Amino acid sequence: SPGQALALYESCFGKAQQGEVTCCLFLDNHVYGGVTFGQKLWRGANNIVGAWGHMPLAWPVPHELEGRDCWCGRNGCLEGFLSLGGPENEYFNITQTKLDIQAIADSSDASDLVASSVLQVLDDRIGRATAAIINMFDPDVIILGGRIAELKRLYLNVPRKWPGYLLTERSETKLLQASTVPFALAQGAAWLVAS
Fold it and tell me: What's the DSSP call for residue 181?
């Protein structure tokens, strides 16, 4: 998966080379993930480690309990909230205007209150999802990749959400954007096949 390829690339060549435990979230048309210990990808007995997209949204608020239908046949998966379709559909449902994630971010910067609200909700949801990952794996680094990860606001706002959800008062986990070198995912995928 792109999440496993990203985790392997970042651990071997990128921003997580010094990390003992690295978790990756690839947030794009779909949600993927990966976990590495040192520079070794953890695959698991079923080769599904990091399948965050099909875990439920952590600590849902009442209106989120209605969930969202997912292509996997379940309801309420992270995929429905954190993939591109999550915030883009929310913006469309309120405004009847179709914008991609970058246009929503640009509108937010231009004082569009709906766009700002959609992004604040996204910050919070990624905060809850990553807090659950920290409680589970206690990683040194969480790497975000994909088009949603290009939102610079996440790296300030998401860690601010953690204290209310973590089993520790202060987290040492770093939240970083994936390396922006060309073909990083392809290199990670090649390394994944080779390993």
Answer: -
What phi and psi values does residue 35 have, to the nearest 5 degrees?
-135, 135
Contact 143, 23 (CB under 8 A): yes
> Cα separation of 122 and 174, whole Å?
19
E strand spans, the chain: 21-27, 31-37, 40-41, 141-145, 174-177
Beta-strand pair 31-37/174-177: unpaired
| Helix axes of 184-194 and 2-12: crossing angle, nearest 10 degrees | 90
Running along the chain, 195 residues long, what does each successive block of 10 average in pLDDT? 85 87 94 92 88 91 82 88 95 96 96 97 97 94 95 97 90 92 60 60
* 166 and 27 Cβ atoms separated by less than 8 Å: no
Question: Three-state SS for 130?
Answer: helix
Of the candidates 16, 6, 3, 17, the residue with the CA atom closest to the CA atom of residue 185: 6
Q: What CA–CA distance (Å, rounded) separates 147 from 154?
A: 12
The secondary structure of residue 96, as a DSSP letter, is S
**pTM recorded for the entire structure:** 0.90
**In the 8-state DSSP scheme, what is residue 67?**
-
